[in-house]
Automatic annotation (TrEMBL):
Cited InterPro entries: Ntn_hydrolases_N, Proteasome_alpha, Proteasome_alpha-type, Proteasome_asu_arc, Proteasome_asu_N, Proteasome_sua/b
Pfam annotation, one family: Proteasome
A GO CC term attached to the entry: proteasome core complex, alpha-subunit complex
Location of the Proteasome alpha-type subunits domain: 9-31
Domain of life: Archaea
GO MF annotations, alphabetized: endopeptidase activity
SUPFAM superfamilies assigned: N-terminal nucleophile aminohydrolases (Ntn hydrolases)
GO BP term, example: proteasomal protein catabolic process
Function statement: Component of the proteasome core, a large protease complex with broad specificity involved in protein degradation.
Main location: cytoplasm
Annotated organism of origin: Halobaculum litoreum
Name the UniProt record assigns to this protein: Proteasome subunit alpha
Ligase listed as a keyword: no
């Protein structure tokens, strides 16, 4: 009987279990943990977003693995979890950013954008016949001349961070970020911290330029910059994080 009751709470997104849990939201968090890692670092000079985007096969075009997304000129998003769910939320965020520009003639604040997205996510924890989004997002950008960095959770809760990781091996990556973070990081030091933290998320030694996504939004120009493979290779070589030339990509999780 107890097992049957457990199964009932397990299937209903709108039903709390006797101990106050929504199991489908917890399962959505597990889907995020299965995705490859993404990292965000807030520095004194801007925001750094980095993502593990190694392809599952040498036949796959690296550009088709989408982990970093430009939302507006001043803001970007990194994702971990189900790719299809991430794309839906990315499209939603882009629409909201453009609506704000058309309606008010100004860019949307990072905190306002994050809370608009999390309000949308939260609706899917209360509506029967729908499931939560199995994805977490890192929202980073410049607001009123200040770097801001937020996380969205499948429950619809926004959190602001100085540095964070989402996806696989989150505990190990966060520990590395805690050890290396300080308030006065430059943008280049932030890139080094983000890439070195990303290397903690995998079993392989070193990172491949085509298997890493890197984007920055600096305070000076408030422009989202997506770094290409050549630029990333330069950073990896400079920070001694470049994988050996004869290294091979390992198997990747089904979700990203």
């Amino acid at each position: 009987m107890q097992g049957q009751q457990q199964q009932a709470y397990d299937r209903g997104i709108t039903i709390f279990s006797p101990d106050g849990r929504l199991y489908q939201v917890e399962y959505a968090r597990e889907a995020v943990k299965r995705g490859t890692a993404s990292v965000g670092v807030r520095t004194a000079e801007g925001v750094v977003l980095a993502a593990d985007k190694r392809s599952r096969s040498t036949l796959m075009e690296p550009e088709s693995v989408e982990k970093l997304h430009k939302i507006d000129d001043h803001v970007g998003i990194a994702s971990a979890g189900h790719v299809a769910d991430a794309r839906q939320l990315i499209d939603f965020a882009r629409r909201q950013a453009q609506v704000n520009r058309l309606r008010y003639g100004e860019e949307m604040g990072i905190e306002t954008l994050t809370k608009t997205v999390t309000d949308h996510i939260q609706q899917y924890t209360q509506v029967g016949g729908a499931r939560p989004f199995g994805v977490a997002l890192i929202v980073g950008g410049i607001e009123d001349g200040e770097p801001r960095l937020f996380e969205t959770d499948p429950s619809g809760t926004p959190y602001e961070w100085k540095a964070l990781s989402i996806g696989a091996n989150r505990g190990d990556v966060r520990e590395h970020l805690e050890e290396g973070y300080h308030e006065e990081l430059t943008i280049e030091a932030g890139i080094e911290l983000a890439l070195s933290a990303l290397s903690e998320s995998g079993d392989d030694e070193g990172l491949e330029p085509h298997g890493v996504g890197l984007a920055t939004v600096e305070v000076d120009d408030e422009r989202y910059v997506d770094h290409d493979a050549a630029s990333i290779e330069g950073y990896l070589d400079e920070f001694d994080l470049l994988a050996e030339a004869d290294g091979e990509d390992g198997d990747e999780p089904a979700d990203e």
